[in-house]
Amino acid sequence: MSILSLPQPYLLFLGDAVDERDAKTAMGLRDWAGDRCVGEFALPTATITTGLSRLTPEAARARGAQSLVIGVAPAGGIVQPSWIPALREALEAGLDLVSGMHTRLEDVPVLRRAASEFGRRLIDVRRPRETFPVGTGRRRSGQRLLTVGTDCALGKKYTALALARAFAQRGVSSTFRATGQTGIMISGSGVAIDAVVADFIAGAAEALTPDASADHWDVVEGQGSLFHPAYSGVSLGLLHGTQPDVIVMCHEAGRESVHGLPEFDLPSLKEAIDVTLMLARRTNPAVRCGGVSLNTSTLPFEQAQALLARHSVELGVPCADPVRGGARFEELVSACLGT
């Protein structure tokens, strides 16, 4: 796989975002690569913040920033026209542009000309650097964990990163496998799976998780959701190609309908687990559910703990919030490892 070498430190661009869930790239970099982020830059209409210093591109360059990362991802992954002047300003200030959007930066004439004029780079993380075969379904050596979800943007990446870190802390041989733009920016390698032509998604997932030693774990960042009307295809391809030995179901407390499509109700956790296991058995009949990762960020501590306990009893598997950590998360880690 191609190993990216991205210009760091980063200045995080929030565009005109008003919903924190649309800025998951910026939030993920803040949380998992904060030592490589000098600040944030946003349009006046933005109402969210990463909590980092609000800087102009010129001020960020003076503090050592090497690139501006587009930290927001509106539906469709399109570079918005309202962003163009700000992105050009960053190029003029001496920053490269890093994007995980579907729109290629070089396809935006203003940015292409500005990059040439100021001698800067336009770096598209979501552009596949390899070609992949179709999936084979061949069983591979090693062990694999895939985070899956009832919906999009609710914690699959955070869960995979937290589990990979916990495995390493226990001395378990493991690798975080990134499948989205933010994960790739954090880890430096991976496959932007939703940018792969549909016929080759399973093959790309197989290439991402090759044969490994029997005690090695690939912890794979999930994408989309089998229950999302728009993004279920990429989720199924990733599920079949990854051939997980363990799935961890991710959900956000209080979310009852599909993000952006409120007319579609989410399944119960039990239904989501059952359906996912049924489909996963196509390429790994021995797959099991290690537990549930519940995003409880909107709940006070005591209420969150009560909800985690209730779901654990109802489902018969550990239920934890990886961000809160604690004994429940350690129980989830043990269950995933089978220890």
Automatic annotation (TrEMBL):
Q: Name one Pfam family in it.
A: DUF1611
Which residues are in the D-glutamate N-acetyltransferase-like N-terminal domain?
A: 55-128
Which InterPro entries does the record cross-reference, listed alphabetically?
Answer: DgcN-like (IPR011669), DgcN-like_C (IPR035086), DgcN-like_N (IPR035402), P-loop_NTPase (IPR027417)
Q: Which SUPFAM superfamilies match?
A: P-loop containing nucleoside triphosphate hydrolases
Q: Which organism is it from?
A: Steroidobacter flavus
State the protein's name. DUF1611 domain-containing protein
Q: Give the D-glutamate N-acetyltransferase-like C-terminal domain ranges.
A: 134-327
